[in-house]
Amino acid sequence: MACAGCGTGASGKPNGCKSNGGCDTGGCNRLNVFDWLANIPLGDSLAPFDIIEVSFNNGSRKDFFRNATKQFFEKGEMVAVEGVSGFDVGMVNLTGELVKLQMKKRRVEDTPEVKKLLRRASTDDMNRMSENKAREKEALIKARAIARNLGLEMKLTEVEIQADGRKATFFYTADDRVDFRELIKIYASEFKVKVEMRQIGARQEAGKVGGIGSCGRELCCSTWLSDFKSVNTTAARYQNLSINQAKLSGQCGRLKCCLNYELDTYLDALKDFPEDADTLETAAGTASLQKRDIFKNLMWYSFDNSNKLYPLTITRVKEIRHLNKQGNKPEELKAVELVATKPKEIDLGFVDVVGQISLRSLEKTSQKRKQKGKEKEKEKEKPKQAAPQNQGNQPKQGGNQQKQPQQAKQPQQGGSQGQGQQKPKQPQQAPQQKQHHQKQSQQRHEPKGPGNNNPPQANRPPQQNQQKEKPNTPQQQPKPKPKPPRPPQGNNK
Protein backbone atom coordinates (compact mmCIF):
# COMPACT_ATOMS: atom_id res chain seq x y z
CA MET A 1 0.00 0.00 0.00
CA ALA A 2 1.14 3.52 -0.70
CA CYS A 3 1.78 6.10 1.97
CA ALA A 4 -1.09 8.42 2.83
CA GLY A 5 0.68 11.58 1.71
CA CYS A 6 1.97 10.26 -1.61
CA GLY A 7 1.65 12.88 -4.32
CA THR A 8 3.55 14.85 -6.94
CA GLY A 9 5.40 18.04 -6.20
CA ALA A 10 6.15 21.04 -8.39
CA SER A 11 9.32 19.50 -9.85
CA GLY A 12 7.58 16.24 -10.74
CA LYS A 13 9.03 14.23 -7.85
CA PRO A 14 6.97 12.42 -5.21
CA ASN A 15 5.87 14.94 -2.63
CA GLY A 16 4.63 12.89 0.33
CA CYS A 17 7.08 10.03 0.84
CA LYS A 18 10.20 12.14 0.01
CA SER A 19 11.86 9.14 -1.61
CA ASN A 20 12.55 11.08 -4.81
CA GLY A 21 11.20 8.37 -7.03
CA GLY A 22 12.46 5.39 -5.07
CA CYS A 23 9.11 4.23 -3.74
CA ASP A 24 9.11 0.43 -4.13
CA THR A 25 6.00 -0.47 -2.15
CA GLY A 26 3.99 -1.17 -5.30
CA GLY A 27 1.05 0.92 -4.17
CA CYS A 28 1.86 4.12 -6.07
CA ASN A 29 0.96 2.60 -9.45
CA ARG A 30 -0.03 -0.66 -11.08
CA LEU A 31 2.54 -3.17 -12.41
CA ASN A 32 5.30 -1.55 -10.39
CA VAL A 33 8.86 -2.89 -10.78
CA PHE A 34 12.00 -2.77 -8.66
CA ASP A 35 15.23 -1.60 -10.24
CA TRP A 36 17.70 -3.80 -8.39
CA LEU A 37 20.61 -2.67 -10.63
CA ALA A 38 20.19 1.05 -9.89
CA ASN A 39 22.85 1.18 -7.14
CA ILE A 40 25.42 -0.97 -9.00
CA PRO A 41 28.04 1.27 -10.66
CA LEU A 42 29.04 0.65 -14.28
CA GLY A 43 32.55 0.56 -15.65
CA ASP A 44 34.23 3.66 -17.06
CA SER A 45 34.11 2.31 -20.60
CA LEU A 46 30.39 1.47 -20.39
CA ALA A 47 27.83 4.15 -21.00
CA PRO A 48 24.35 3.92 -19.42
CA PHE A 49 21.59 2.64 -21.64
CA ASP A 50 19.83 5.59 -23.25
CA ILE A 51 16.29 4.14 -23.41
CA ILE A 52 13.89 4.62 -20.49
CA GLU A 53 10.63 2.86 -19.71
CA VAL A 54 7.78 5.28 -18.93
CA SER A 55 4.37 4.35 -17.47
CA PHE A 56 1.13 6.24 -18.12
CA ASN A 57 -2.19 6.43 -16.30
CA ASN A 58 -0.86 4.97 -13.03
CA GLY A 59 0.87 2.05 -14.70
CA SER A 60 -1.97 0.82 -16.93
CA ARG A 61 0.15 1.47 -20.05
CA LYS A 62 3.94 1.42 -20.54
CA ASP A 63 6.19 2.45 -23.41
CA PHE A 64 9.88 3.00 -24.22
CA PHE A 65 11.50 6.37 -25.07
CA ARG A 66 15.03 7.39 -25.97
CA ASN A 67 16.76 9.80 -23.59
CA ALA A 68 18.29 12.28 -25.99
CA THR A 69 18.80 14.95 -23.30
CA LYS A 70 21.66 12.98 -21.63
CA GLN A 71 20.19 13.83 -18.23
CA PHE A 72 19.91 11.40 -15.34
CA PHE A 73 16.33 10.53 -14.38
CA GLU A 74 15.33 8.63 -11.26
CA LYS A 75 12.40 6.33 -10.88
CA GLY A 76 9.17 8.21 -10.10
CA GLU A 77 10.03 11.45 -11.86
CA MET A 78 7.44 12.96 -14.20
CA VAL A 79 8.73 13.57 -17.73
CA ALA A 80 7.33 14.96 -20.98
CA VAL A 81 7.67 12.66 -24.01
CA GLU A 82 6.67 12.74 -27.65
CA GLY A 83 3.04 12.06 -28.42
CA VAL A 84 0.70 12.06 -31.40
CA SER A 85 0.97 15.59 -32.81
CA GLY A 86 1.92 16.86 -29.37
CA PHE A 87 3.41 15.71 -26.09
CA ASP A 88 2.39 13.42 -23.25
CA VAL A 89 3.38 13.26 -19.57
CA GLY A 90 4.32 10.01 -17.82
CA MET A 91 6.31 8.60 -14.88
CA VAL A 92 9.77 7.08 -15.18
CA ASN A 93 9.33 3.39 -14.37
CA LEU A 94 12.68 1.79 -15.17
CA THR A 95 16.17 2.90 -16.24
CA GLY A 96 19.51 1.26 -16.93
CA GLU A 97 20.32 -2.26 -17.99
CA LEU A 98 16.99 -3.75 -16.94
CA VAL A 99 15.31 -1.84 -19.79
CA LYS A 100 17.12 -4.13 -22.25
CA LEU A 101 15.52 -7.18 -20.65
CA GLN A 102 12.08 -5.56 -20.73
CA MET A 103 12.45 -4.69 -24.41
CA LYS A 104 13.54 -8.25 -25.20
CA LYS A 105 10.60 -9.62 -23.24
CA ARG A 106 8.12 -7.46 -25.16
CA ARG A 107 9.93 -7.95 -28.46
CA VAL A 108 10.74 -4.27 -28.97
CA GLU A 109 13.81 -3.52 -31.10
CA ASP A 110 16.27 -0.67 -30.56
CA THR A 111 15.70 1.30 -33.74
CA PRO A 112 15.89 5.02 -34.61
CA GLU A 113 12.10 5.03 -34.77
CA VAL A 114 11.85 4.94 -30.97
CA LYS A 115 10.20 8.10 -29.68
CA LYS A 116 12.23 10.63 -27.73
CA LEU A 117 12.05 11.97 -24.20
CA LEU A 118 11.72 15.75 -24.33
CA ARG A 119 12.26 17.19 -20.82
CA ARG A 120 11.26 17.06 -17.21
CA ALA A 121 7.60 17.91 -16.72
CA SER A 122 7.05 21.52 -15.68
CA THR A 123 4.21 22.96 -13.62
CA ASP A 124 2.38 24.04 -16.78
CA ASP A 125 2.60 20.50 -18.14
CA MET A 126 1.28 19.04 -14.91
CA ASN A 127 -1.62 21.50 -14.70
CA ARG A 128 -2.58 20.85 -18.30
CA MET A 129 -2.45 17.10 -17.75
CA SER A 130 -4.65 17.28 -14.64
CA GLU A 131 -7.28 19.30 -16.53
CA ASN A 132 -7.44 16.78 -19.38
CA LYS A 133 -7.45 13.78 -17.02
CA ALA A 134 -10.51 15.23 -15.28
CA ARG A 135 -12.42 14.93 -18.57
CA GLU A 136 -11.90 11.15 -18.83
CA LYS A 137 -14.85 10.09 -16.64
CA GLU A 138 -17.37 12.25 -18.46
CA ALA A 139 -15.98 11.17 -21.82
CA LEU A 140 -16.36 7.48 -20.86
CA ILE A 141 -20.03 7.96 -19.91
CA LYS A 142 -20.85 9.79 -23.13
CA ALA A 143 -18.92 7.30 -25.26
CA ARG A 144 -20.85 4.37 -23.78
CA ALA A 145 -24.17 6.11 -24.44
CA ILE A 146 -23.24 6.80 -28.08
CA ALA A 147 -22.14 3.19 -28.67
CA ARG A 148 -25.39 1.91 -27.15
CA ASN A 149 -27.49 4.16 -29.37
CA LEU A 150 -25.68 2.83 -32.47
CA GLY A 151 -26.40 -0.74 -31.35
CA LEU A 152 -22.77 -1.87 -31.32
CA GLU A 153 -21.96 -5.02 -29.32
CA MET A 154 -18.92 -3.67 -27.53
CA LYS A 155 -17.98 -2.66 -24.00
CA LEU A 156 -15.90 0.44 -23.38
CA THR A 157 -13.51 -0.08 -20.50
CA GLU A 158 -11.31 3.00 -20.26
CA VAL A 159 -10.68 6.33 -21.97
CA GLU A 160 -7.16 7.79 -21.87
CA ILE A 161 -6.69 11.39 -23.00
CA GLN A 162 -3.24 12.66 -23.89
CA ALA A 163 -1.69 15.27 -21.61
CA ASP A 164 -2.04 18.07 -24.19
CA GLY A 165 -5.66 17.06 -24.95
CA ARG A 166 -5.14 16.38 -28.69
CA LYS A 167 -5.68 12.61 -28.70
CA ALA A 168 -7.97 10.16 -26.89
CA THR A 169 -7.57 6.36 -26.81
CA PHE A 170 -10.71 4.26 -26.27
CA PHE A 171 -10.12 0.74 -24.87
CA TYR A 172 -12.95 -1.72 -25.51
CA THR A 173 -13.73 -5.45 -25.37
CA ALA A 174 -15.88 -7.34 -27.86
CA ASP A 175 -16.51 -10.99 -28.72
CA ASP A 176 -16.88 -10.39 -32.45
CA ARG A 177 -15.53 -7.90 -34.94
CA VAL A 178 -17.05 -4.41 -34.62
CA ASP A 179 -17.52 -1.89 -37.44
CA PHE A 180 -16.89 1.41 -35.66
CA ARG A 181 -16.17 3.65 -38.63
CA GLU A 182 -19.26 5.73 -37.98
CA LEU A 183 -18.55 5.68 -34.25
CA ILE A 184 -15.12 7.30 -34.73
CA LYS A 185 -16.67 10.22 -36.64
CA ILE A 186 -19.16 10.87 -33.86
CA TYR A 187 -16.44 10.68 -31.20
CA ALA A 188 -14.18 13.10 -33.08
CA SER A 189 -16.96 15.68 -33.48
CA GLU A 190 -18.17 15.26 -29.91
CA PHE A 191 -14.83 15.38 -28.04
CA LYS A 192 -12.79 17.47 -30.56
CA VAL A 193 -9.81 15.09 -30.36
CA LYS A 194 -8.06 12.53 -32.52
CA VAL A 195 -9.66 9.16 -31.78
CA GLU A 196 -7.87 5.82 -31.49
CA MET A 197 -9.79 2.57 -30.86
CA ARG A 198 -7.86 -0.27 -29.19
CA GLN A 199 -9.34 -3.70 -28.50
CA ILE A 200 -8.21 -5.61 -25.40
CA GLY A 201 -9.09 -8.97 -23.86
CA ALA A 202 -11.10 -9.81 -20.78
CA ARG A 203 -7.97 -10.34 -18.68
CA GLN A 204 -6.51 -6.95 -19.69
CA GLU A 205 -9.85 -5.37 -18.83
CA ALA A 206 -9.75 -6.81 -15.32
CA GLY A 207 -6.19 -5.52 -14.96
CA LYS A 208 -7.25 -1.98 -15.88
CA VAL A 209 -10.37 -1.93 -13.72
CA GLY A 210 -8.77 -3.72 -10.74
CA GLY A 211 -10.49 -5.39 -7.80
CA ILE A 212 -10.16 -7.91 -4.97
CA GLY A 213 -9.94 -11.62 -5.73
CA SER A 214 -11.44 -14.57 -3.87
CA CYS A 215 -8.17 -14.92 -1.95
CA GLY A 216 -8.74 -11.50 -0.35
CA ARG A 217 -5.82 -9.81 -2.12
CA GLU A 218 -5.67 -7.41 -5.05
CA LEU A 219 -5.88 -8.99 -8.47
CA CYS A 220 -2.58 -10.31 -9.84
CA CYS A 221 -3.26 -8.86 -13.30
CA SER A 222 -3.53 -5.35 -11.82
CA THR A 223 -0.47 -5.53 -9.54
CA TRP A 224 2.37 -7.60 -11.00
CA LEU A 225 1.22 -10.07 -13.67
CA SER A 226 2.04 -8.83 -17.17
CA ASP A 227 2.03 -12.03 -19.23
CA PHE A 228 -1.22 -13.96 -19.61
CA LYS A 229 -0.94 -17.67 -20.31
CA SER A 230 -3.79 -19.91 -21.39
CA VAL A 231 -5.49 -21.83 -18.56
CA ASN A 232 -7.28 -25.14 -19.21
CA THR A 233 -9.52 -27.34 -17.11
CA THR A 234 -6.82 -30.02 -17.19
CA ALA A 235 -4.88 -27.91 -14.69
CA ALA A 236 -7.78 -28.33 -12.25
CA ARG A 237 -7.94 -32.08 -12.88
CA TYR A 238 -4.24 -32.54 -12.16
CA GLN A 239 -4.75 -30.78 -8.81
CA ASN A 240 -7.85 -32.87 -7.93
CA LEU A 241 -10.12 -29.82 -7.92
CA SER A 242 -13.85 -30.04 -8.56
CA ILE A 243 -14.81 -28.72 -11.98
CA ASN A 244 -17.02 -25.89 -10.75
CA GLN A 245 -17.20 -22.94 -13.11
CA ALA A 246 -18.26 -20.51 -10.39
CA LYS A 247 -15.24 -21.35 -8.19
CA LEU A 248 -12.63 -21.72 -10.92
CA SER A 249 -13.44 -18.50 -12.81
CA GLY A 250 -12.15 -15.08 -11.81
CA GLN A 251 -13.65 -11.61 -12.09
CA CYS A 252 -12.87 -11.50 -15.79
CA GLY A 253 -15.10 -14.53 -16.43
CA ARG A 254 -12.16 -16.72 -17.48
CA LEU A 255 -10.35 -19.43 -15.55
CA LYS A 256 -8.16 -18.09 -12.76
CA CYS A 257 -4.54 -17.43 -13.61
CA CYS A 258 -3.47 -18.86 -10.25
CA LEU A 259 -4.39 -22.38 -11.43
CA ASN A 260 -1.08 -22.40 -13.31
CA TYR A 261 1.02 -21.37 -10.31
CA GLU A 262 1.24 -24.83 -8.67
CA LEU A 263 0.69 -26.89 -11.78
CA ASP A 264 4.41 -27.63 -12.29
CA THR A 265 4.73 -28.89 -8.72
CA TYR A 266 1.81 -31.29 -9.18
CA LEU A 267 3.19 -32.54 -12.49
CA ASP A 268 6.56 -33.31 -10.88
CA ALA A 269 4.87 -35.19 -8.03
CA LEU A 270 2.67 -37.22 -10.41
CA LYS A 271 5.67 -38.66 -12.24
CA ASP A 272 5.98 -41.44 -9.63
CA PHE A 273 2.35 -42.53 -10.11
CA PRO A 274 1.63 -45.17 -12.80
CA GLU A 275 -0.16 -43.76 -15.84
CA ASP A 276 -1.88 -46.95 -17.05
CA ALA A 277 -3.65 -47.74 -13.77
CA ASP A 278 -7.10 -46.29 -14.41
CA THR A 279 -8.72 -49.73 -13.85
CA LEU A 280 -7.68 -52.79 -11.85
CA GLU A 281 -9.09 -56.30 -12.34
CA THR A 282 -9.79 -58.31 -9.17
CA ALA A 283 -11.80 -61.40 -8.27
CA ALA A 284 -14.51 -59.14 -6.76
CA GLY A 285 -14.79 -57.04 -9.95
CA THR A 286 -13.27 -54.08 -11.74
CA ALA A 287 -11.98 -51.22 -9.60
CA SER A 288 -11.86 -47.73 -11.14
CA LEU A 289 -9.47 -44.92 -10.19
CA GLN A 290 -11.16 -41.99 -8.45
CA LYS A 291 -8.32 -39.69 -7.37
CA ARG A 292 -4.62 -39.43 -6.59
CA ASP A 293 -3.24 -38.07 -3.33
CA ILE A 294 0.26 -36.74 -3.95
CA PHE A 295 0.76 -35.76 -0.30
CA LYS A 296 0.24 -39.31 1.05
CA ASN A 297 1.24 -41.16 -2.16
CA LEU A 298 -2.07 -43.00 -2.29
CA MET A 299 -4.46 -43.90 -5.12
CA TRP A 300 -8.17 -44.25 -4.35
CA TYR A 301 -10.27 -46.90 -6.13
CA SER A 302 -13.91 -47.93 -5.97
CA PHE A 303 -16.00 -50.76 -7.45
CA ASP A 304 -18.83 -50.17 -9.86
CA ASN A 305 -21.55 -51.50 -7.54
CA SER A 306 -20.51 -49.56 -4.39
CA ASN A 307 -19.44 -46.08 -3.40
CA LYS A 308 -16.80 -47.20 -0.90
CA LEU A 309 -13.28 -45.96 -1.60
CA TYR A 310 -10.19 -48.12 -1.11
CA PRO A 311 -6.83 -46.33 -0.68
CA LEU A 312 -3.89 -48.24 -2.21
CA THR A 313 -0.19 -47.52 -2.16
CA ILE A 314 1.75 -46.99 -5.37
CA THR A 315 3.68 -50.25 -4.97
CA ARG A 316 0.46 -52.25 -4.47
CA VAL A 317 -1.08 -50.71 -7.60
CA LYS A 318 1.98 -51.64 -9.63
CA GLU A 319 1.82 -55.24 -8.34
CA ILE A 320 -1.85 -55.62 -9.28
CA ARG A 321 -1.20 -54.07 -12.66
CA HIS A 322 1.64 -56.55 -13.28
CA LEU A 323 -0.65 -59.48 -12.33
CA ASN A 324 -3.37 -58.25 -14.67
CA LYS A 325 -0.92 -58.16 -17.57
CA GLN A 326 -0.11 -61.82 -16.86
CA GLY A 327 -3.81 -62.67 -16.82
CA ASN A 328 -4.14 -63.15 -13.06
CA LYS A 329 -6.65 -61.44 -10.75
CA PRO A 330 -5.91 -60.91 -7.05
CA GLU A 331 -8.57 -61.87 -4.55
CA GLU A 332 -8.47 -58.53 -2.69
CA LEU A 333 -7.03 -55.08 -3.06
CA LYS A 334 -5.33 -54.94 0.37
CA ALA A 335 -6.31 -51.36 1.08
CA VAL A 336 -4.39 -49.24 3.56
CA GLU A 337 -6.12 -48.63 6.89
CA LEU A 338 -6.23 -44.93 7.57
CA VAL A 339 -6.79 -43.94 11.19
CA ALA A 340 -7.77 -40.36 11.74
CA THR A 341 -5.85 -39.55 14.89
CA LYS A 342 -5.09 -36.16 16.27
CA PRO A 343 -1.42 -35.31 16.73
CA LYS A 344 -0.23 -35.55 20.30
CA GLU A 345 0.30 -32.26 21.99
CA ILE A 346 3.85 -31.81 23.18
CA ASP A 347 4.25 -30.20 26.58
CA LEU A 348 6.94 -27.58 26.18
CA GLY A 349 7.06 -26.84 29.90
CA PHE A 350 5.67 -23.37 29.63
CA VAL A 351 4.28 -21.95 32.86
CA ASP A 352 2.04 -18.92 32.88
CA VAL A 353 3.55 -16.78 35.60
CA VAL A 354 1.05 -13.98 35.21
CA GLY A 355 -1.91 -16.23 35.92
CA GLN A 356 -5.26 -16.70 34.30
CA ILE A 357 -8.11 -14.30 34.64
CA SER A 358 -11.44 -16.07 34.44
CA LEU A 359 -14.84 -14.53 34.00
CA ARG A 360 -16.05 -16.10 37.24
CA SER A 361 -13.70 -13.99 39.33
CA LEU A 362 -14.97 -10.87 37.60
CA GLU A 363 -18.56 -11.96 38.20
CA LYS A 364 -17.87 -12.52 41.90
CA THR A 365 -16.44 -9.05 42.34
CA SER A 366 -19.44 -7.52 40.58
CA GLN A 367 -21.81 -9.50 42.81
CA LYS A 368 -19.98 -8.35 45.94
CA ARG A 369 -20.29 -4.75 44.86
CA LYS A 370 -24.01 -5.18 44.27
CA GLN A 371 -24.47 -6.73 47.73
CA LYS A 372 -22.57 -3.89 49.39
CA GLY A 373 -24.74 -1.38 47.58
CA LYS A 374 -27.93 -3.14 48.71
CA GLU A 375 -26.69 -3.23 52.33
CA LYS A 376 -26.00 0.50 52.28
CA GLU A 377 -29.49 1.18 50.94
CA LYS A 378 -31.01 -0.97 53.68
CA GLU A 379 -29.06 0.92 56.38
CA LYS A 380 -30.41 4.21 55.02
CA GLU A 381 -33.98 2.89 55.06
CA LYS A 382 -33.77 1.53 58.66
CA PRO A 383 -34.03 4.95 60.45
CA LYS A 384 -37.02 5.84 58.27
CA GLN A 385 -38.79 2.62 59.24
CA ALA A 386 -37.87 2.99 62.95
CA ALA A 387 -39.61 6.40 63.27
CA PRO A 388 -43.26 5.15 63.13
CA GLN A 389 -42.38 2.10 65.28
CA ASN A 390 -41.01 4.27 68.12
CA GLN A 391 -44.17 6.35 68.38
CA GLY A 392 -45.92 3.64 70.42
CA ASN A 393 -42.93 3.29 72.73
CA GLN A 394 -42.63 6.98 73.57
CA PRO A 395 -43.19 6.58 77.33
CA LYS A 396 -40.07 4.41 77.55
CA GLN A 397 -37.99 6.55 75.21
CA GLY A 398 -39.17 9.91 76.42
CA GLY A 399 -35.88 10.65 78.11
CA ASN A 400 -33.93 10.09 74.91
CA GLN A 401 -35.85 12.76 73.07
CA GLN A 402 -33.99 15.47 74.99
CA LYS A 403 -30.76 14.71 73.05
CA GLN A 404 -31.87 16.89 70.15
CA PRO A 405 -31.99 20.61 70.89
CA GLN A 406 -34.92 21.22 68.53
CA GLN A 407 -37.24 19.00 70.55
CA ALA A 408 -36.48 20.85 73.80
CA LYS A 409 -38.47 23.87 72.54
CA GLN A 410 -41.69 21.86 72.12
CA PRO A 411 -44.03 22.32 75.09
CA GLN A 412 -45.53 18.85 74.65
CA GLN A 413 -42.22 17.14 75.40
CA GLY A 414 -42.36 18.31 78.98
CA GLY A 415 -45.03 15.77 79.80
CA SER A 416 -43.17 13.04 78.05
CA GLN A 417 -39.99 13.99 79.90
CA GLY A 418 -41.75 13.93 83.20
CA GLN A 419 -43.31 10.60 82.37
CA GLY A 420 -39.94 9.17 81.40
CA GLN A 421 -38.40 10.43 84.65
CA GLN A 422 -41.10 8.89 86.82
CA LYS A 423 -40.26 5.33 85.84
CA PRO A 424 -37.01 4.97 87.83
CA LYS A 425 -38.67 6.79 90.84
CA GLN A 426 -41.97 4.93 90.93
CA PRO A 427 -41.51 3.50 94.45
CA GLN A 428 -40.64 6.95 95.92
CA GLN A 429 -43.34 8.95 94.04
CA ALA A 430 -46.28 6.95 95.41
CA PRO A 431 -47.16 9.57 98.14
CA GLN A 432 -46.37 12.53 95.84
CA GLN A 433 -48.32 11.50 92.69
CA LYS A 434 -50.96 14.18 93.14
CA GLN A 435 -48.39 16.98 93.36
CA HIS A 436 -46.56 15.69 90.31
CA HIS A 437 -49.78 15.52 88.34
CA GLN A 438 -50.54 19.12 89.20
CA LYS A 439 -47.13 20.24 87.99
CA GLN A 440 -47.64 18.49 84.67
CA SER A 441 -51.02 20.12 84.16
CA GLN A 442 -49.52 23.56 84.91
CA GLN A 443 -46.78 22.99 82.35
CA ARG A 444 -49.33 22.13 79.66
CA HIS A 445 -51.41 25.29 80.19
CA GLU A 446 -48.46 27.67 80.53
CA PRO A 447 -47.73 29.82 77.41
CA LYS A 448 -44.52 29.50 75.49
CA GLY A 449 -41.65 31.63 76.59
CA PRO A 450 -37.93 31.67 76.85
CA GLY A 451 -38.11 30.71 80.51
CA ASN A 452 -40.56 27.88 80.09
CA ASN A 453 -38.53 25.88 77.56
CA ASN A 454 -36.34 24.23 80.23
CA PRO A 455 -37.68 21.32 82.26
CA PRO A 456 -38.29 21.74 86.00
CA GLN A 457 -35.46 21.59 88.47
CA ALA A 458 -36.83 18.49 90.16
CA ASN A 459 -36.46 16.45 87.00
CA ARG A 460 -32.82 17.32 86.21
CA PRO A 461 -31.04 14.63 88.28
CA PRO A 462 -32.58 11.80 86.25
CA GLN A 463 -31.69 13.77 83.09
CA GLN A 464 -28.01 13.60 84.03
CA ASN A 465 -28.27 9.85 84.44
CA GLN A 466 -29.73 9.61 80.95
CA GLN A 467 -26.91 11.70 79.51
CA LYS A 468 -24.38 9.19 80.86
CA GLU A 469 -26.13 6.45 78.95
CA LYS A 470 -26.08 8.54 75.77
CA PRO A 471 -23.12 6.77 74.00
CA ASN A 472 -24.87 3.38 74.25
CA THR A 473 -28.11 4.57 72.63
CA PRO A 474 -28.28 4.75 68.82
CA GLN A 475 -28.71 8.07 67.09
CA GLN A 476 -32.20 8.88 65.90
CA GLN A 477 -33.43 11.20 63.21
CA PRO A 478 -35.94 13.97 64.04
CA LYS A 479 -39.28 12.36 64.80
CA PRO A 480 -42.69 13.69 63.94
CA LYS A 481 -44.66 15.65 66.51
CA PRO A 482 -45.75 13.09 69.18
CA LYS A 483 -49.20 12.92 70.68
CA PRO A 484 -49.74 14.15 74.30
CA PRO A 485 -49.06 11.31 76.79
CA ARG A 486 -51.78 9.72 78.75
CA PRO A 487 -51.99 10.43 82.50
CA PRO A 488 -50.48 7.75 84.73
CA GLN A 489 -52.73 5.03 86.04
CA GLY A 490 -52.10 6.03 89.71
CA ASN A 491 -54.06 9.31 89.25
CA ASN A 492 -57.07 7.44 87.92
CA LYS A 493 -57.28 5.58 91.20
Automatic annotation (TrEMBL):
GO terms for cellular component: cytoplasm. Transmembrane segments: none annotated. It holds the Pfam family PSP1. InterPro entries: PSP1-like, PSP1_C. Residues 385-433, 450-478 have a biased composition (Low complexity). Residues 364-493 are annotated as: Disordered. Residues 115-200 form the PSP1 C-terminal domain. Residues 374-384 have a biased composition (Basic and acidic residues). This is Cell fate regulator YaaT (PSP1 superfamily). It comes from Chitinophaga skermanii.
